[in-house]
Amino acid sequence: MLYEINEKVMKLEGEGRNIVKLNIGDPDQETPREIVEAAYEALRNGKTKYSSGAGEMKLREALASIHDVSSDRVVITPGSKWAVFAIMYLLLKDGGNVIIPTPHWTAYELIAKSLGVKVRFLRTELDSNWQIDAQELSKLIDGQTKLLILCNPNNPTSVALKEENLEEIVSTVDERFIILSDEVYSDISFAKTKSILEFNGKNAVVKSFSKTFAMTGWRIGYSVTSEELAEKMVKLNLMSVTNVPVFIQVAALKALELRVQIAEKMREEYRRRADLACEVLSKTGLRFATPDAPFYIFPKYSNLDSERFALDLLDQGVAVTPGTAFGEYREHFRIALTLPEQEISRGLDRVCRGIEESL
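^ thats the sequence. predicted structure below, dont judge the formating
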């Protein structure tokens, strides 16, 4: 339903309807001017040729320095989604199973299904603040398990795994297979988060420039994996996407130079939006976890049919995503705070009226 709702929104907008889009995590901010100018200058300087399938060395070295790893472990990809796909493809193309905690970003499940591998879902709940039960995790592991995918902080809940919970997960896996941690929201998290890279082992991280730097349409992300897996990813890049355009990589390098100030500005803006949303939604019968990070809130209302609710709201000019897009969470729906505060307030007022009307 995530993509279906978005398609309906675009269709309605094409018909001239004004929709308050609380359904998709696409930052409303413009890409910072310095980043755009760096790309423009690179284009003027002829940075339009083929390049390394691993990525430009200067960018890889800058990222390696941030993560305190060798640059040989860093691969630049056309968005973090491609990094997720590449890792899943390389680890699962010969079979096996993957464990995915829910609620989960839709792409993980769709990629797994496209590869024909079995998905074992590990359910988490609002009542436990969306933390992962290590004992339940251990029950899903067998000799065919090749991958565990974490999203930390999580999409759609915006809750980060507590350090002790992450330690339990790592201990349970015990290096029997790879943990892939999708950490695209970590740089702008309100709460301190611990990366899977801070643990010993062969675990992998994917990250993106999309959220921190408002660069969703630029399609640039990266992975940090073992050198062995990185080499395989480079070969896959070369036989498929070839390389991320060099002028985009130059822009990404400029983004890293401004990383601290841009991330701080983005973080504070979304903290204000989260505070606003929590204040408004707390006046209803909705239950939700206070966000640890942008951009989402994942409220629950008992006996709600969120698919019907989302479609009814859309008829009234507000788009949200039903919880069924992220697993078996029919009583939940996701709100994305990727609009100016005035628009968020207008959309949330309609959400609250919709909840009252459902009583």
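The mean pLDDT is 96.
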